[in-house]
Amino acid sequence: MPFKHVLLTALQALESHKSRSALTILGIVIGVAAIIMVMSLGKGAEAMILGEVSGLGPETVILRPGNSLTDFTQTLYSQTITKKDIEALKRKQNVPNLVEIAPLVITYESVEYQGDLYRPSIMGAPAEFIANLFDIGLSEGHLYTDDDIDQEARVAIIGSEIKNDLFGSSRAVGKQVKIKDKKFKVIGVFEDKGNVGGFNIDTLVLIPQTSVQTYITGTDYFAEVMIRADSPENAEKLAYDVEVTLRDVHDLSFHEENDFNITTQEETIEMIQTIVTIFTSFLITVVAISLVVGGVGIMNIMLVSVSERTKEIGLRKALGATRQDILNQFLSEAIILTSLGGVIGIIIGASFSFLAALILSQTVAEGWEYIFPVGGSLLGVGVSAGVGLLFGIYPANQAAKKSPIEALRYE
Amino acid sequence: MNLFEVSNLEKTFTGGGVETKVLRGIDFSIEEGEFVSIMGPSGSGKSTLLNILGFLLDHSSGEYKFNGRRYEDHTEDEIAQVRNREMGFVFQTFNLLPRLSVFENVQLPLMYSGRPESEWKDRVDEVVEMVGLTHRSDFDTYKLSGGEKQRVAIARALVNGPNVIFADEPTGNLDTKSGQVVMQTLQELHDKFGHTILLITHETFTAEHADRMIYIVDGKVESDKKNLNRRDAKLDFRK
Fold first, then answer.
1. If you measure CA to CA, which chain B residue comes closest to A326?
2. Does the N terminus or the C terminus of chain B have fewer Cβ atoms within 10 A?
3. A323–B54: do the CB atoms touch at under 8 Å?
């Protein structure tokens, strides 16, 4: 039987049982819709996280103490990157592509103002670099300068939440706060910004790194060094130069491991993508189970349909249909059903995830973008057609096996 | 040449541990172009015989040759092909697909024939005209009268230009008039177009429209004779 007529015949049969066909594919519709939603939201989340991370810019390389990229305690407590390293890295002959270097100190200490306490994260870093990096402005005051850093000035820029907590509606700039019993002068307040690149700007105190080392931590170690290359293409080369320089400064012999680690944004992006992929794959696996359930539903209804249409099958065989003809007819019914379910599922899934993206972007996750998973949709249609094929084979085979005369006599 | 050759044909049905011998050694042969009625009371095995002859059922023992070739020498696909190209079936209960139009019902055997699709329409139109239903071609078949349905079934049986038409109690579900129209159509197919026709019936009146009458009782041929006083369906009509 020509393929066109196999399809037409299948469509006619499905059309004559519209509401049953619709209910049958519901399981597939829901399964595929869920897959599309998981994929779309997963991609959206990935895009958003990457957007925040690459806020650092692809030309930025991060240097941290400790040789493990993932063991954060090691990073916090390793004390392998010092002022000496920074000076070596600043030398042009060591790292020619370096245009900017920002060593960071991070610590936690109470900030006191007239007896009120606040426990913020304290970051010691060049103010201009941080402001550019996180793209934050000040709601009042000004940034400190490189001179302030050289002179270990006791100045601080505070986050908006700290300002509100300690100063209420009155002006903060010009006031003195106490950190570890040392007086620091507030010279600026950050505008509301929330989380950027893993830091909550609103609860951050920014102080020259030299001042943090001298007056607060009492050490000359850095928790993190951000280094900017002259172009994104040179980030990898810069990372290599940094590694060579530090190994030399640290006097590491060739069999010793690095006592620091270097992350390019590319690596971070890859890591995040891996995490998101693992997470969405897990969810998709869970959701895929519903497709199997849907497939069983299809099989069930197909079996009912085969037994209802025993007479029709007998007649078709008596008129010359081969086993293959009957098999094809019922298989195409199953595949058409499930593919249709897949397409409807994609439409519903895409609409719901669009809605979810809209709500997310208006509420908790500003900048969340809707992403239509093209690959996921193709996969969805493919998988649902596959489900039809898989779960249609048994009923179709039952139909094809029927002996024509017994089928004709069937009442 | 003999189209059908049956010798010592037996058929036993087994069901629920009970063996029922339905055919107990049938012998006959039928030539191409004959119009034969197979008669017998219900339970005589005549329908079983027709189903075996029509490749719808296999026999238990004995030999059945169609067109000189033994039934069991055909593969399953060849059996389907013989049913499709060389045999046409007309059933007592019409067996039309109710949601399809007259045209689509008649077209069914062509879809399984392997003939090019471009020939289908002309062929369907031709046979629908032969049974006088051109004006009903686009009707869904459930809207037709019993007589019309049976004529659609005849058109469907004819559409692939088969050698032989099997008619199993074709008038059984029809009123007298419609039955006569159907019988007239069958006679015309035989007389004008030379089709071989095998008619199964339990009514002597209907059987007498054929040229040869085989009478079956208890799974055996009781008599097999020429019908010298063939009824003419056209004349029946006038009465």
1. B112
2. C
3. no
- pLDDT of residue A218 exceeding 80: yes
In this structure, how many other beta carbons lie within 10 angstroms of the beta carbon of residue B99?
A: 14
Which residues of chain A lie closer than 8 angstroms to B100, CB-CB? 12
Nearest CA-CA distance, residue B114 and chain A, Å: 7
**Is B80–A320 a contact, with Cβ atoms under 8 angstroms apart?**
yes
pLDDT in tens, B26-84: 999 999 999 999 998 888 888 889 999 999 888 999 999 999 999 999 999 999 999 99
- Give the separation between CA B92 and CA A395, rounded to whole angstroms: 29
Q: Which residues of B18-56 are buried (b: 16+ CB within 10 A; e: fewer)?
A: eeeebbeebebebeebbbbbbbbeeebbbbbbbbbbbbb
Whether A281 contacts chain B with CB within 8 A: no
Contact A321 B57 (CB under 8 A): no
Residues 44-83, chain B, touching A (beta carbon < 8 A) = 51, 54, 56-57, 76-77, 80-81, 83
A75 has a pLDDT exceeding 60 = no
> Does the beta carbon of B101 lie under 8 angstroms from any beta carbon of chain A?
no
Residue (of A239, A220, A262) closest to A67 by Cα position: A262
| Phi, psi (rounded to 5 degrees) for A187 | -115, -5
- pLDDT value of residue A42: 84
CA distances from A122 to A83, A138, A340, A407 (A): 19, 17, 57, 83
Give the chain A residue nearest B118 (alpha carbons): A2
With a pLDDT cut of 70, the percent of chain B lying above it is 98
Contact (CB, 8 A) for A249 and A88? yes
Indicate the residue of A312, A317, A320 with minimum beta-carbon distance to B113.
A320
* pLDDT at B176 > cutoff 60: yes
pLDDT tens by residue, A56-71: 677 888 888 887 655 5
How many beta carbons lie within 10 A of that of residue B102, not counting itself? 28
* Domain residue spans of chain A: 3-53+270-409, 81-258
Q: What is the end-to-end Cα distance of chain A in Å, rounded?
A: 27
For chain B, positions 157-176, list CB contacts with chain A under 8 A: 160
Give the phi and the psi of residue A122 in degrees, each rounded to 5.
-110, 130
Task: Tell me if chain B has a CB within 8 Å of the CB of A411.
Answer: no
Q: Do A321 and B156 touch (CB under 8 A)?
A: no
| Number of residues that make up chain B | 239
Residues in A closer than 8 angstroms to B51, CB to CB, are 405
Tell me how far apart the alpha carbons of residues B212 and B235 are, in angstroms, rounded to a whole number.
19
What string of H, E and C letters represents the secondary structure of A330-357?
Answer: HHHHHHHHHHHHHHHHHHHHHHHHHHHH
Angle ∠(B61,B67,B72) on CA atoms, nearest 5? 35
Q: What is the DSSP string of A142-193?
A: ----HHHHHTT--EEEE-HHHHHHHHTTS--TT-EEEETTEEEEEEEEEPS-
Please determine, for residue A86, whether its predicted confidence score (pLDDT) is greater than 70: yes
